[in-house]
Amino acid sequence: MVYIIISIVILLILVYVFYIGIKTAIYVRRIANEKDKPPAFAPPSPKKVIRHRFKGSLFETAITCLENEVEKDYALKSIIEKLPLFLKADSWSFLLTPNNDEWRFLFWSKNLDFLPLEEVAKEIQISGEHIKRVFNTKKILFIKDTKNNTLWNQKHSLSKSWLGMPIMVKNEIIGVLNVDWFKEVKVSKFEKELINYFLEDIDRILKTIFSLNELFLSSDLDILTQVYNRKALEKYISQHKSDSSKKAVIFLDFDNFKQINDNFGHTVGDQALKLLTKRIQNSIKSDDLIFRYGGDEFVIIINEIRENNSIDIIIQRIKSTVKTPITINDILIISSISVGYCLVPQEAPDIEKAIEIADKKMYLQKEIH
Fold this sequence. Notes:
With about 375 residues, the protein is of the alpha+beta class. The chain is about 50% helix and about 20% strand. The strands form 3 sheets. The protein has a 5-stranded antiparallel β-sheet, with helices on both faces. A hairpin with a 2-residue loop joins strand 9 (about 325-330) and strand 10. The longest helix is centred in the first third of the chain and has 30 residues, at about 1-30.
């Protein structure tokens, strides 16, 4: 009698599962593309199920970012960190790899805060063969045993196994996602296929949802501070070589900013730099221009200078707003800047020469401090 009851229960479960399976297959068939429509009652392949779930997760993240109007670099972080989470990595980082500029880590997992990431990025750009292989081939690269791999010569690393993934937008690589394990692991062929699918989906979402191809590939904006970058400054210089209007060029550098990164981590340092840059922007007119020259150095071009003393007033205003303390994650940060300036055409014939003079004046002021 007991066996009959068990058999009936099992039969009912099987009928229920079969019914649910058919129902699910019908719905899957309705929403599938015509090109890849599955047979009426065939279950979808595991790869398709996982890929669709991952893609759905990416879209949910993208929509949340859009709804909350988060900054684009944070949106990018929220999207690509899905991969390290899927792979159960011990740490991860995203290295921005522009063609004609310094490489730098844009964001990373918290357990890498102790590393001198600016130095690491410079080392990798010079001698990081593992990253260069990913950058040049635009393909994923897995190193199972970093200790015994000839491509791996990275200092300051706890990684035993490493996976490098190119983050692409419109077939152009914008950076490399580093996924690290502190023990030796194996990435199966199945997982590698999934990763390549995921990278395609990330590419599609980045260019359609956030239009990051414009931000990274053709934009003149600095990704962190959202002011103009050095490429934009070079373009401005070339376009204004014969401009004879009165201008002032300000070259400024944050004092001891490296200490903020060393004491509180690069995440806090980046947030501080963004806030302080925004304050500087608010201290100048909308038609004046601010460029991130590199690191914590900035060039400001003030248009239509009529009186020499007006530039002193602007500089004092900028210094004052930078000195106002800021609080990030309950950390009080007090900053200051060293400044040099040059007037065009009184002191220099063009913008390029004015930047050179202003830079030298700024360093003289820094030495006094």
